[in-house]
Amino acid sequence: MGPALADFTYNLRTAKDTKTWDDTIVSSTEDSTICGAWSYTLKMGDDSVLDVRAFSSQLPGTKNFAVESSIEAMIGDHTIKLTAW
Predict the structure, then answer these.
(1) Positive or negative CA dihedral for 7, 11, 47, 61?
(2) Of 68, 71, 46, 72, whose CA–CA distance to 57 is shortest?
(3) Cα distance between residue 34 and residue 2, in whole Å
(4) What does the pLDDT look like over 4-44, one tens digit per residue?
(5) Where are the domains of the chain?
(6) Which of 16, 29, 66, 85 is deepest in the core (most CB within 10 A)?
(7) pTM of the entire structure?
């Protein structure tokens, strides 16, 4: 099973759908490193900021991604990019 953020559907005008992830969904090709905790960004697939008409995040405070909208212009597929470092 993939991470909570992968391939999910939200139905317009339903209650907010919040996905929470943890560090176990992150993988790296590095076998050793000296660093602190993972940091994350969430952006639209084209690297623009999250479209606030439907998407929100509480980064860096929590690892939450939420979808909530009643705007018909938001109907369709949207790619969200999770970046970790």
Answers:
(1) negative
(2) 68
(3) 27
(4) 788 889 999 999 999 998 888 877 777 776 777 788 999 99
(5) 1-22+38-85
(6) 66
(7) 0.81
